[in-house]
C-alpha cells in the first residue's frame, strides 16, 4: 500500500529539566489516570490514556499518539510523566504548541488544560478514574459510530472526507476511497430475515475493520453500503485492498442460526488526483460510479474509476 511522505525536517528533542515543575503540582489520587481527549480535529472525540515516561505526539508512524491534521509536525510535542505529574514539551514543531492560548516550550499540565497543535487540533488534558473512562468511551462511540456495525457513522465519515480531500488537494497527495455494498442484500433479508441481514452487516464490518490500516477511516455509509477512506494510497493499491477484502468475504462462512447465508460484495474505487475532485461528494460520486458498474457487470468484483484521458 502507498504511504504519504511528509516534508517536515527532523525535529530535535530536548531533555526536560522538571525538578522545579514537579513542586508546582499537587499529588493526585492514585485512582486517577491522565488522558488527552480530542476536542477538535479529524480524531474528534477520541480519548488517549497518558501512559509511560514519554508520549510523543505527531504525524510520524512511530509516534505514540498519531494525529494527521494540517500543521502538525512529524514529531510535534511530547508528554513527560513523573509520578502523578505530566509535562508537555514542544519538539521544535513548525507551528508550535499552545496551552490555553499561550505558546509554550515546556510546561506542567493541569486538569482541564486545552492544548492546540497545528491548524485544527485541540486536545483537552484531564484526569479520570476507570468509571469516567468507560463513560467517556461510551459517549464517543455513541456520537461517532454506527450502533450495529461499530464502524464510523455517515456524519463522521463525511466530515473526515471533506478534511482529507482538502488536505490532499493542498499537498498534492494521494487519497483513495473504496465504496462497497452487499450483493443481493434485499434477497438476503427477504429469504433469511432481517436479523440475518443485520448479522451479515455486522460480520462484514468486523472483517473490514480487521483488514484496513489503523489510519484508514471505515464507515457505514447507509443501509448495506460502506466506505473506506485511505490517505496516502494510490488508486492501484486501493484496488488491491478492495480485492483482498472481496476475497476475504467471499471465502468466509456466514451462518445465522444454523443456516448458511451466501454473501459477497461489490467494490468501487476512486482516487484523487487520478480523478481530480474539489469536494468529498465528488469523490463519493466517482467511487459509486465504479461500484454501480461492478454490480451491473455481474457483482462480486472490484472496479476502479479512472480519470478522463488526456
From TrEMBL:
<dbReference type="GO" id="GO:0043709">
    <property type="term" value="P:cell adhesion involved in single-species biofilm formation"/>
</dbReference>
<keyword id="KW-0560">Oxidoreductase</keyword>
<dbReference type="InterPro" id="IPR000160">
    <property type="entry name" value="GGDEF_dom"/>
</dbReference>
<dbReference type="Pfam" id="PF00498">
    <property type="entry name" value="FHA"/>
</dbReference>
<dbReference type="GO" id="GO:1902201">
    <property type="term" value="P:negative regulation of bacterial-type flagellum-dependent cell motility"/>
</dbReference>
<dbReference type="Pfam" id="PF00990">
    <property type="entry name" value="GGDEF"/>
</dbReference>
<dbReference type="InterPro" id="IPR043128">
    <property type="entry name" value="Rev_trsase/Diguanyl_cyclase"/>
</dbReference>
<dbReference type="InterPro" id="IPR000253">
    <property type="entry name" value="FHA_dom"/>
</dbReference>
<dbReference type="GO" id="GO:0005886">
    <property type="term" value="C:plasma membrane"/>
</dbReference>
<dbReference type="GO" id="GO:0052621">
    <property type="term" value="F:diguanylate cyclase activity"/>
</dbReference>
<feature type="domain" description="FHA">
    <location>
        <begin position="55"/>
        <end position="104"/>
    </location>
</feature>
<dbReference type="InterPro" id="IPR008984">
    <property type="entry name" value="SMAD_FHA_dom_sf"/>
</dbReference>
<feature type="domain" description="GGDEF">
    <location>
        <begin position="173"/>
        <end position="307"/>
    </location>
</feature>
<dbReference type="InterPro" id="IPR050469">
    <property type="entry name" value="Diguanylate_Cyclase"/>
</dbReference>
<dbReference type="GO" id="GO:0016491">
    <property type="term" value="F:oxidoreductase activity"/>
</dbReference>
<dbReference type="InterPro" id="IPR029787">
    <property type="entry name" value="Nucleotide_cyclase"/>
</dbReference>
<protein>
    <recommendedName>
        <fullName>diguanylate cyclase</fullName>
        <ecNumber>2.7.7.65</ecNumber>
    </recommendedName>
</protein>
